[in-house]
Amino acid sequence: xxxxxxxxxxxDHDPLERRxxxxxxxxxxxxxxxxxxxxxxxxxxxADHMVENVVGILGVPVGIATNFRIDGVDRLVPMATEEPxxxxxxxxxARIARATGGFSTSTTGDVMIAQVQVVDAVDPExxxxxxxxxxxxxxxxxxxxxxxxxxLGGGASDISVRTLPTRTGTQVIVxxxxxxxxxxxxxxxxxxxEALAPRVAEIAGARTLLRILTNKADLRLxxxxxxxxxxxxxxxxxxxxxxxxxxxxxxxAYRAATHNKGIMNGITAxxxxxxxxxxxxxxxxxxHAARDGAYRSLSRFERTPDGDLVGTLEVPLAVGLVxxxxxxxxxxxxxxxxLRIDSARELAATIAAVGxxxxxxxxxALAAEGIQRGxxxxxxxxxxxxxxxxxxxxxxxxxxxVADGRIRVEHAVEVLADLRRSSS
Length: 424
Hints:
Elements: H1 15-25, H2 44-48, E1 62-70, E2 73-80, H3 86-98, E3 104-107, E4 111-119, H4 124-133, H5 135-143, H6 147-151, E5 155-166, E6 169-179, H7 186-204, E7 207-213, E8 221-228, H8 230-233, H9 236-251, H10 253-273, H11 278-289, E9 299-303, E10 309-316, H12 324-328, H13 330-339, H14 344-368, H15 371-386, H16 391-404, H17 409-423
Antiparallel strand pairs: 1-2, 3-8, 4-6, 4-7, 5-6, 8-10, 9-10
Helix pairs in contact: 3-14, 5-7, 9-10, 9-14, 10-11, 10-14, 15-16, 16-17
């Protein structure tokens, strides 16, 4: 069977049935995703080796986004999130994009940057030029720290140096560019920066201070594009309204903050589900949103000549398949297996596609009916559970509070009490 992300009616099954359908849809063997069961996932012993002072494990729901076709390949996407409507919204947007071929992506590569800070230079500009003259020597010294990375085709690729006026004097900042291949890259570039620091200080005739990667990964950009047909979005007026909403976020920081949060709803969920560093990715994306000196939207929606809507997104994504929790966490490994990806670039492409899909879904909801209607309907099940409903009671309580238009805990408590009286 050819793997497919089109699993219609997945929501109508219980979790165990869904898992079996997802395994089949992804072309995995039965039981391949068994570690997604809390009883078989991350153990307390494993957690104790991951971070300090471990006392327990926090569970986060993992849902599967369906319908994604990315660069011609169907992918079922794991999303770890506690927020209702996120998985359903991404899946629906992916279904709409699927009609025009899905999502197309491109990347600038897998280059991360390490910074070495030089302070107390007597001649900052002279130090800058001396460091540039030593480029080949410094690159060779960096590569010597990670021969395995070099053997895989990665390694140090360039050096740039700039002077930076600050309130404590002019500093000299060295940027080491490193192709980290399929790793997130933090350990590799940090090790190289540490190794370079003594020689950098000697050449500059000054003192080095900080030597660490930057999460502003603007040499590791992923771009994604998709066309959303007007008729599937709700017509020409919806397309025009989404475009107007996009223009609002492009120019207004208050709107851009919420607009980009919607993008990160999708991005962070996939980053977390695959064991990557959510904080690093979020820092990189938000710094990219402010790259021109003003905080703006990361995405853009425009009408095509045919009246459809084209969405584009560009984000820095420092994610990897080797090292860290991606290897140590069994659920993260299962998420990577489910995606059937072979490289960090494919993972980044998937993450960016989900971010764009999530963004389109939110903008469409805002432009067409307001965000609360759909969001609160899905949130009703959480409200019902918060009111004390059992597994067998949640669906009925949720349906009643939605029908009443009062999706609040206090009303759910009243409905639950009434339901129990009538059944006793």
